[in-house]
Structure formats: structure tokens, C-alpha cells
């Protein structure tokens, strides 16, 4: 496996990042162990987690599985989710972040994580306050690098300015959503990351299963009882546009014509963007993760990438001067 640098951190990571969100949820402890063993045998050394995944169960399972080889791994986790039934049990206050990180480290059985993400934007307090707390955690050695997930480009850029002004550790890694049916990050976030040499690990490369082929020929938002789109209202709403289903159907036809599993092709397409360090892949079983793992060995040619990209609408440029795009 060809490892690559994670932005400016100097850390070398696998071109695929394994997401442990299914641990303790769709994957019980035994299945989680099988998934962990499978991705490690493939050479993946990069694992993404969060305290909010199954209310800490994902971190606990991961901590047990990785205990014998902690120093061989690059681990991320996130803070924001409410973890207790009390008024201050979530968000991005200094109080919650510090408590959440202490709890995460205990569950993960480690003294630090390589990347700590602010999981969601918290508009109830200044960005400067959140970043100062992250700086304190970096100085304490509990987080080696600062990460931002689900923030807009202007918020990320504002944060970088704040960090530079104070001489704090800069944000080094971003985690946005990105797939063939969700391309908004191409407008500003990925250009910002490329300009500032930020690592980027993207989630949902197959659009919650929409690009896997299981929903082919159905109307957007349907697929009741099947996968996340059929059982989770949040995901169903996220991928509810008819244009997304049309893109997915065309993409699956393209994959079939090329003789490539659509999941392999979808993950590879995301990873072939030069601004992306590693797509995050996850699964509820070893069988399900195989086509995603195959993306590590798939060669996406420039011609193929262009053909796949043409299957979905290109997002408008940030200034709306479409005549100047490209």
C-alpha cells in the first residue's frame, strides 16, 4: 500500500481511512473485531472514530482492539455530541470539550489521539474560544493535531486566521462529506485545503449506499426497509433529490459497463481528487467492506474520472460567475 502524507503533519497514512462508526451499532463486538482484522491485514493504519458513535461504544471497542498495536496506528476522534443526560453534556464549550476528550482517551485506552475533530459547528460561542481549548489540548499532548468536521469554508478560513494571529497550532485536517452526488466541497473547501496544505478525509463516499446499486431504479427517498436510506430519515432527506437518484442510476450503469463494482468505483473516484488524502470507508460486515477495500488497488485514469464526473451536475462556482468556472 502506498502511504501518503496527511497534510503538513508529517504523518504517513493509508490512502483509505477506516471509519469505526458501525462499531457497537450495526457491528457487534465479534463483527467489529473481524472488520478491524480485515482492514489491518490490508495495510490500513488510519482509523476514524467519534465519541458520539453509539454513545462511546465505538471508542471502547476500538480501544480494546488496537491496544496491542497502538503506536502503529493513526487515530482520530471527535467532540460535540451529548454524552450524558445533563444540560452541559454536549456542544463545543471548554467544559464539554475537556471532559469529552478525557473520557474518549479512557475509552480508547490511549494517552493521545493523532487528530481531534470539532465534529459540528456550535454557533452558541465564539470560534476563538473553541480553538483556544483545542490549542490547550495540543499543548497538553492529548491531541497532536486539530481537525475540523462539517464546517463551512469561511469558518475554516476564519479559524486559520485566528490561530495564526495567536500563534496557536493550525487546523491540519478537514473532514467534510464528499461523493459523486454531494460535490459542494469542490467549490471552496477543497481549494482551501489544497492552498493551505491541509489533510482531507471525506465521509460518505457512496452516498449512504445510494451509489452502491442497491437502490437502482427507485425514486429518491425510497428504499423503505433497506439500508440507511430506507431506515434513517436523516439520510433519506440528505439524498432526497431526484437528480441524485438519476446520477446514481447512471453511475451504476457505467460501473457495470466497466465491469467494476460500483462501491469500488465510487470510493476510487473520491480518492482520485488530488485534494483528498483518504476517503473514509466503513461497513457492517467483512463481506460488505470488500469492494471498498478494493479501491486501494484500483487505478482511476484521468479519462475515467472525467467520464464519471460528467454524470453529476457540477456545483456552481463560489462567485456564481459560471462563465469563469474551470
Report on this structure.
The chain has 326 residues and is α/β, with parallel strands linked by helices. It has a domain at 4-175: TIM Barrel (Alpha-Beta Barrel), CATH 3.20.20. The chain has 12 helices and 10 strands. An 8-stranded parallel barrel has the order 3-4-5-6-7-8-9-10, surrounded by 6 helices. It has a two-stranded antiparallel ribbon with strand order 1-2. The model has no long low-confidence stretch (mean pLDDT 95).
TL;DR of this structure?
The chain contains twelve helices and ten strands.
Number of strands: 10
Radius of gyration, whole Å: 19 Å
Which percent range fits the helix content? 25-40%
**Helix-strand makeup class:** alpha/beta
Order of helices and strands: EEEHEHEHEHEHEHEHHHHEHH
Q: Give the low-pLDDT segments.
A: none
Strand content: 5-15%
Assigned CATH architecture of the domain at 4-175 = Alpha-Beta Barrel
Mean pLDDT: 95
At CATH level 3, the topology of the domain at 4-175 is TIM Barrel
CATH homologous superfamily classification of the domain at 4-175: NADP-dependent oxidoreductase domain
Question: Strand order of the main beta sheet, please?
Answer: 3-4-5-6-7-8-9-10
What general form does the structure show? globular
At the first level of CATH, what is the class of the domain at 4-175? Answer: Alpha Beta
DSSP helical segment count = 12
Largest sheet: 8 strands, parallel, barrel
End-to-end Cα distance, whole Å, is 32 Å
